[in-house]
Automatic annotation (TrEMBL):
Record key words, sorted: Signal
Naturally occurring in which organism (per UniProt): Sphingobacterium paucimobilis HER1398
Annotated protein name in UniProt: Phosphodiester glycosidase domain-containing protein
PANTHER family to which the protein is assigned, alphabetical: N-ACETYLGLUCOSAMINE-1-PHOSPHODIESTER ALPHA-N-ACETYLGLUCOSAMINIDASE (PTHR40446)
Keyword presence, Mitochondrion: no
Pfam families: NAGPA
Residues annotated as signal peptide: 1-25
Length: 320
């Protein structure tokens, strides 16, 4: 009887382990096309991978990298590597050119409503994805109160102010510190929360953020040293936006990034200003496959499945 119970308990434990660790592995490359280089040889890396190699501070060995054009002015890149400490890493980058005609950046909220609730990034995108408003990709947005579901920072959507204040962050010192937005003139802007009141009238789309780790191309050193899954965004002087998601908390697959590493990566991409967004299990990287036209989550969220979050940033094409 004891032996039978032991076997049952072992089986239950195995099923629990499998349930936690198994995440749907969506191929990064579009359609059925595999990348031309699974394990690239030196000199054949994507442009972004080469920039990280050149820093000599991020990558020890490139395991694989893939890039493809989602649409005109929008490119997706995946980089698999071991870092300089010999640990596995996986990065996902969506680059968009704000100067590209018919491509824009918009705030998404759960069910496309103004009420504070939660929904996955993928489902937020599906609600608004339609002719004339084609979703090309997106990432999760601001931190939020897990009890009330209220975002920690401000929310501007379609030129309307949904939330105009920053929540108390005494219990979460890395949150409710900043904001990122698209101004009425189409320019991107990252500001400290102290700058919000002077900029509020100019913000067409905006969400709160966390630590600003890069300002005017200068790295801002942080006292927080955690290695975590990360979501971040930044922009260059010529209005190119970089969305970055780093998976973590899965040692054999991807460990996560420190703020120092995040800063070096964004600086290598020639980013001027960059801010950290909600990370951990919230980190989500979604892109539309240019062949199948399906919206797909490409990263592996550390919870084991996509988390419902308070808001997100979506790259939108106005072409039908």
């Amino acid at each position: 009887m004891k032996l039978r119970l032991l076997k049952i308990n072992c089986l239950v434990l195995l099923l629990l382990i499998l349930n936690v660790s198994c995440v749907k592995d969506t191929p990064f490359y579009p359609g059925d096309r595999k990348p031309s280089v699974e394990k690239p040889e030196e000199g054949s890396y994507t442009a972004l991978t080469q920039k990280l190699i050149n820093t000599k501070k991020i990558i020890s060995t490139v395991v694989g990298d893939t890039t493809f054009q989602v649409s005109n002015g929008v490119d997706a890149t995946e980089i698999r590597y071991t870092n300089i400490e010999g640990k596995a890493m996986q990065l996902f980058i969506l680059a968009m050119d704000l100067k590209q005609k018919n491509v824009t950046l918009k705030v998404a909220t759960p069910f496309d409503k103004t009420e504070f609730t939660k929904q996955t990034v993928l489902n937020m995108a599906k609600v608004v994805d339609k002719p004339g408003n084609i979703v090309l990709g997106g990432i999760n947005g601001d931190f939020y109160n897990i009890s009330t579901l209220v975002p920690r920072g401000i929310v501007h959507k379609d030129g309307k102010i949904i939330k105009d204040n920053f929540s108390d962050n005494s219990d979460a010192p890395q949150q409710a510190l900043s904001f990122f937005g698209i101004l009425n003139n189409g320019k991107p802007f990252i500001g400290d929360k102290s700058e919000y009141n002077s900029k509020a009238a100019e913000l067409k789309e905006a969400l709160g953020g966390g630590i600003i780790f890069l300002k005017n191309k200068n790295i801002i050193t942080q006292s927080f040293i955690g290695v975590d899954p990360r979501t971040a965004l930044g922009y260059t002087e010529d209005d190119k936006i970089y969305f970055l998601v780093a998976d973590g908390r899965n040692p054999s697959y991807s460990n996560g990034l420190t703020y120092a590493e995040l800063s070096i990566i964004m600086k290598a991409f020639d980013v001027k200003d960059a801010v950290n967004l909600d990370g951990g299990g919230s980190s989500t990287f979604m892109v539309k496959d240019p062949i199948s036209k399906k919206l797909e989550v490409k990263n592996k969220p550390s919870d084991g499945s996509e988390r419902e979050v308070a808001n997100s940033w979506l790259v939108i094409s106005n072409n039908d």
